[in-house]
Design brief:
- The protein has 407 residues and is an alpha/beta fold.
- The chain contains 15 helices and eleven strands.
- The strands form three sheets. Strands 3-2-1-4-5-6-7 form a seven-stranded parallel β-sheet.
- About 2% of the residues have low confidence.
Length: 407
């Protein structure tokens, strides 16, 4: 079979998820496929070493060449009698002028599900271009069963034309000793605890108690649920909501984590649908989980816990004495300043209204006593007082109307 592949992303976007995918796709096809013949479009300075069954059409080092997409690529595909053309980078660059069957790799639709994880430019391209691209292609390759269902539902694309090919890690990724990783992180970033607070970028005041409560809620909600009953995208959306609620902006690297987790979900759901999340993370949480309080507990831990428990009666006596002697204190902290702000606005407007009322009353007294200077027999001071009061009163009325408080 003769297959054309748009390999430009292997050079242009190397280091990104799409660039790495395209590079490894072409590289591994060259290693293991000796039956098919390929025509690959790549930039001239690409470092791909391809075998004899790969023909190369070198492209200009530009990602904005519409002439190449609309004219040269279709002509080359026709000249080589290609039977299939594939675009790995979400179909971007797929021309309407191509005559042979066309497929794309659409990795996921995270930009639609979580627009806060991508740039505005990429989101705009995704929203405007992907529907047009899908109308022009005959099949889709995606990376997980979850993404397959998501794409079919979102774009009404036939399920039988969406094919799942799971991703694999590159050779450079190898398991590393967990203790070594933890030590490395502590030494490099000088962190001893509260790691989660340093993952995000603070955009405002972070209330740690509220953050802990929100994280604990998610933990308790999903800890013992079978993975077949969990929709991972919903969990990740809830994580993003918790971060936003607590004034934390997650870094762009979190997007890659989301994609990896969605892919992993699809693989696990196929291999073992009944696997429980607790069985995957038990080794990480058993030391801190209440469910494993007495598992592998050391004598030192038992002694410390026993000592702390023995202090409870003493603390209760201290509390009782404090209450009976009337020395108990209650610390009241108002975290939400919204109501205080509204109260301050109300007081300011009330004070302003009293000032205006006083000016009107004073101007009336002056007009009644009619002191000089005068114009047409009326005190100028009284007239000016009326005018100033009218202006201030009108300004106050407009500010109340604009604030939406006039009901």
């Amino acid at each position: 079979m003769k297959i054309g592949i748009d390999g430009r992303a292997a050079k242009w976007y190397r280091g990104t998820g799409i660039g790495t995918y395209t590079y490894q796709l072409i590289n591994n096809l060259s290693k293991y496929d000796n039956l098919n013949h390929y025509l690959t479009f790549i930039p001239e300075d690409s470092d791909l070493n391809l075998k004899d069954n790969f023909s190369i059409a070198y492209t200009k080092d530009s990602s904005n060449d519409n002439f190449w997409d609309d004219v040269k690529v279709p002509n080359l595909l026709d000249n080589f009698n290609m039977e299939l053309y594939h675009v790995p980078q979400n179909g971007v660059g797929l021309s309407d002028n191509i005559n042979c069957p066309k497929t794309i790799t659409l990795h996921d639709i995270i930009p639609l599900r979580m627009p806060q994880t991508v740039s505005n430019r990429y989101l705009k391209i995704f929203i405007e271009e992907i529907p047009k691209i899908l109308k022009n292609c005959d099949g889709i390759i995606t990376v997980s069963e979850f993404s397959k269902l998501d794409i079919s539902k979102e774009f009404n694309f036939p399920l039988n034309k969406i094919f799942v090919t799971h991703l694999a890690a590159e050779e450079i990724y190898k398991p590393i000793n967990r203790a070594y990783c933890k030590k490395f992180i502590k030494e490099k970033y000088k962190l001893n605890d509260d790691f989660i607070l340093y993952v995000g970028i603070q955009t405002g005041t972070v209330k740690r108690e509220q953050l802990y409560e929100d994280v604990e809620y998610l933990y308790n909600k999903y800890f013992t649920i079978s993975i077949k009953n969990i929709k991972l995208s919903i969990i990740l959306e809830e994580v993003m909501d918790v971060a936003k609620k607590n004034n934390l902006r997650l870094p762009s690297e979190f997007t890659m984590l989301i994609r990896c987790m969605i892919i992993l979900e699809g693989i696990i759901a196929e291999l073992s649908p009944d696997v429980n999340i607790i069985s995957l993370v038990i080794s990480y949480v058993k030391d801190n989980s209440k469910k494993y309080l007495f598992n592998n507990i050391s004598k030192e831990d038992l002694f410390i816990k026993g000592y702390k428990v023995s202090k409870i009666p003493e603390k209760l006596v201290e509390l009782t004495n404090t209450l009976t002697k009337g020395r108990a204190k209650v610390n009241l902290k108002i975290d939400n300043n919204k109501y205080m702000d509204e109260f301050n606005k109300m007081i300011n407007r009330l004070s302003f209204s009293l000032i205006i009322a006083g000016m009107i009353v004073g101007s009336s007294i002056i007009i009644n006593s009619n002191p000089g200077p005068k114009i047409h027999g009326i005190s100028i001071i009284g007239v000016v007082g009326y005018i100033v009061s009218a202006i201030l009163g009108l300004w106050l009325l407009i500010s109340i109307i604009r604030s939406g408080s006039l009901k």
